[in-house]
Amino acid sequence: MLVDSYDRVVDYLRVSVTERCNFRCQYCMPEKPFSWVPKENLLTFEELFEFMKVAIDEGVKKIRITGGEPLLREDLDKFIGMIYNYEPSIDLAMTTNAYLLKSTAQKLKDAGLKRINVSIDTLKPEVAQKIAQKDVLQNVLDGVEEAREVGLKVKVNMVPMKGMNADEILDVLEYCKERDMTIRFIEYMENQYASKDISGLKSDELLKIIGERYSFKDEGFDGSSPSHYYTMDDGYRFGIIEPYEDDFCKQCNRIRLTAEGNLIPCLYFDEAMSIAESIKKGDIKGAASVLKEVVRTKPEKNRWGGEDGESSSRAFYETGG
Ligand code: SAM
Fold first, then answer.
1. Would strands 262-264 and 254-257 be described as parallel, antiparallel, or unpaired?
2. For residue 194, what pLDDT band results from cuts at 50, 70 and 90?
3. Mutate to test the pocket of ligand 1, among 73, 95, 104 (most ligand atoms within 8 A of CB)
4. How many other CB atoms are found less than 10 A from the CB of residue 51?
């Protein structure tokens, strides 16, 4: 079992398989991303899998594949199959923009994927075009329907922004509610890669809008999720990830791996250690000791909203958000 210096059990690994993305969401990426990490610097799926085995053997029980856009990486289903076949009880999930999901959902499900989180920020094609800087909406919605059809459990993430999609909070919520998919609103987190014009809605503003149509109870946190949950009278649950309000460090159980092999103890921290060299040399003990060191040095609290107001210089599209 992996336990950090503050007695938190770390059993959740988020793996970014690529920083590349087929969207250019204004809240995440610059319009023209500078140079991508060269493909030859990325760990292969075989190399990543070697580390997945180490992590599982040390006590990781949940693995989420993310990015960038994970579906841009060819043969993702094979990587998922490797993990599933090594340990079928692993809670195997993926975060995706769903653009390429229609043609891949069945393969991913067959390989052992259990759940997906999809980003849906709007139901209006022209707004989707504005946010992602590409005509994406129909593919996304078709991808979601296909995922549901093949039996993947789907949750939705939405980043509400003033003057952009704030008027669609109830529409997206109802789209999810009708399909019994949990929606989590994510408060926009300022970062140096995003467009400077964005202003996100805070949880009190969201709750006011939702409260005008529905009544709900505050349920607080559920397990180790950073999401704060609210339950409507009919039992439908929605969440808000509220870094401005909530301190979710106490229950944090996660670490992150980038596609180049940097193991990161906290999303809002620059520090990381690389497992790439040990894995490339086949030094499994070395990789395990880097893992234990990263867990040992996991900070008690993130630097979100710290003195300098800066969280981390690493982009969300590199770490997987
Ligand atoms: N491409 C995938 C997707 O679209 O879900 C996975 C990567 S994306 C970086 C993961 C999550 O990070 C998405 O739900 C996205 O909305 C969220 N995200 C990215 N930048 C953010 C920001 N500045 N504030 C809040 N959430 C953000």
1. antiparallel
2. confident
3. 95
4. 24
